[in-house]
Write the structure tokens for this entry.
Amino acid sequence: MKQRVTPPFAASIRWQSVNVIVQVVLQLSFISILARILVPADFGVMAIALVVVGFVEIFAQVGIGPALIQRLNLEDRHIRCAFSFSLILGIVFFAAMYVSAPSIGFFFEEPLLTDVLRWIALSFVLSGLAIVPRSLLIRSMGFKKLFIASSIAMVLGNLFLGLGLAYAGYGIWSYVAALLAQNALLALLYWLLHPVRVNVTFDGTTLKEMLGYGGRSTLFNVSNYAASKVDTLFVGHLSNTGSDASGWTETGIYDRSAYLLGLPITILGKLGDSVLFSGLSSLQKDLTALRQVVERAAAVIAWLIFPMSAVLVWFATDVAVLFLGDQYLLAGPVVQILFLGVAMRSLIKLGDAVVRALDSLVMATFIKLAFLLAIGSAAWFAMNHDHGILGVAWGVTFATAMQFIAMAVLVVHITQWTASSALRSLKAGTASLLLTAIGCWGIATWSENLFSEQSGTTWHLFRVGLASAWGVVCMLWVAQKTTALSIGKPLDWLSGRSASTNTATKDSMS
């Protein structure tokens, strides 16, 4: 009989932080180089393909992975059933996507999309194979092994194969090949690093137990994912003009703008979906310990993200050109508007981990559905009333603010947290934000007056680098004042000198 204990948050967060940062750096390097080889229209087609496949993949997994992680009492029968069901679903959804791909290509008036979708749909099968070992690695806090697997897969799949094919002139197919190679390597490495004895078997009772939480998790993930991609779908459909590539170019510009927005969210999302979700699930019977972790997590997120969001908003055009190249100069205003929601989205990710761990998914799903409706309506209105992708970006930002308020109220309620404590946890981040914003204003004004030729990579790098350095100085200064600000010590939390573990509870599992 094994005992599930409160996880080592600090060690787990350190390893997963390294994992996520390395992933973001490698992925950003891959995309930055690829953006200078492929044309924006290629990214437009690929964006729609990835949105469609990503949406369908949520149904192909039906929450099996989260069910394995969240469940307090996990037995071998759950693992065997999860493997069998996820593998068969992967095969079924691959076949369904292969058959339906021509209809999707016809809807978006792009024949190339049909072939792209059929190849990418192989990821359904690969994901079905990888769900069990990956979920068990997360459950056991094996983030060092996850780091090894993801690093190897991204280097070999993206940087070697993907960029090699791109330089060889394979265009959009280099992106497709990189994606499939990365997923195949991940599946293989997960099994090598966490071997599990499985067989294809079904047990109706066990499957029902898994699908109870898994079904609620799927509805939550579907609404969440759809809300994050519906704007891109509307831009892709309503801006496309068939044989004219200008519509796909606009889609590519908007998609890359949303991609830059997603970078900091990806970091917090991966930490929330793994470390915090797994750890908070083990604390679901001890709200006092759970609340302490949530409060410190909110303090750290605000302290890290708030000041950097000021830099991103103020120097959005510089960031867009640096990471995507001069051909994405027009993305600057769109990126700037979307970056206004970075801080709110980061805290929403923390809320997502909390509601999933405490199985408050029904109410959270209603919030996500309202968010989806708001973004869809805003995107449709903007594209049909000549407001373009700038109007879409403003709609997304306002909808994000509404979602943030709703999720904050829900989290405070289910954790029995007080509003005053929740607000105090954001003080360090708010102080860093104000100081950084003042510095950004000064740097922007001074640099524009100092340099007569305001263009080129050096110009953009200088501005972003100087502003980022100032933001870090503000963060470090505020971190030394956290006691006075009554929000705890985020640096201590990250280094492992954090919340006591004497409130930890042990839950049996077989």
The longest strand covers residues 2-4. Residues 1-6, 241-246, 484-510 have pLDDT under 50 and may be disordered. Strands lie at 2-4, 507-509.
